[in-house]
Design a protein that fits this description.
The structure is a homodimer. Chain A is mainly alpha-helical. Chain A has helices at residues 15-29, 41-48, 52-64, 82-106, 111-124, and strands at residues 37-38, 68-69, 76-78. In chain A, a hairpin with a 6-residue loop joins strand 2 and strand 3 (76-78). Chain A is elongated. Chain A starts with 14 loop residues before the first helix and ends with a helix. The structure holds a DNA duplex.
Chain lengths: 128, 128
DNA sequence: CAAACCGTATCAGTTGTATAACACAGTTCT
DNA sequence: AGAACTGTGTTATACAACTGATACGGTTTG
């Protein structure tokens, strides 16, 4: 069963996109595997305090990407082969990093200044 | 006069927040100084192809932060002392970097893996 | 079988963002 | 003084995101 323990609702960003991202992150990090049970729409909506429709929207889009398989009436499961994992991993890693690099460049930082700042902030948080 | 040449409207992110960010980035990078003229609401709305009310909302919030000074009827100017510049610089640099570091940690990357990925992507773009 | 769950669908309502069309008063400049 | 700008404010409209409530039929389990 996929866990939503460390999941906290962000501010302005659409909830359904946050959920999609959370699951993709879990897959990329290896915390979520193949044929793993997904929380039901109702259960997750109750846990997060959001509307079931919002969860449905997120799951539906994940199903369009082939990451989730749903059968009417039954529980939903993940469906991630090795190619999918690699694809998601590249998508998230390279995407986020490119955005950050662009932001740092626009702020006028040099490569080493930016990397130094990141290295400093890495230690401030816990773990890794 | 503040330039909006290299400014392109993004996809889903609110336009008024993009405008606020663009001006703050210019100040943090040193491209925008003190007592610099800000494009009029009407002129900028025509240039970007958005509604004047959207520009007004962005300028109004910048005025609340003390970054812009507006006198009814006259042109608007920036108002940024050294403390403000430092504050904005920290806000943008540390904020973006903290978000990126958190994302990389959640993806299961080590510090060196993340920094290596960033260093690679830094070269791919132009300049700096 | 029957209860309890599940996915799926529809409807109306609220909020935030953006558009559109104005109006009014203060300023700058010729 | 008068024209052309400026900032400011109002109202109505549109759309996407999210909420709230409800319903239907399929699956699972005791």
């Amino acid at each position: 069963m996929i866990s939503f323990e460390d999941f906290v609702l962000g501010d302005g960003y659409p909830i359904y996109l946050q959920i999609i991202r959370h699951i993709k992150q879990g897959i990329a990090a290896g915390a979520i595997g193949h044929q793993e049970e997904v929380p039901s729409r109702r259960a997750l909506s109750a846990l997060l305090g959001v509307n079931p429709n919002t969860i449905q929207k997120a799951y539906h889009m994940l199903e369009d990407e082939g990451i989730i398989v749903s059968r009417s009436g039954a529980k939903s499961y993940t469906s991630v082969d090795e190619d999918t994992v690699q694809h998601i991993r590249r998508e998230l890693q390279a995407g986020d990093t490119a955005v950050w690099v662009e932001a740092m460049k626009r702020l006028g930082l040099s490569r080493d200044q930016a990397l130094g700042l990141a290295a400093d902030l890495w230690e401030k948080g816990q773990e890794n």
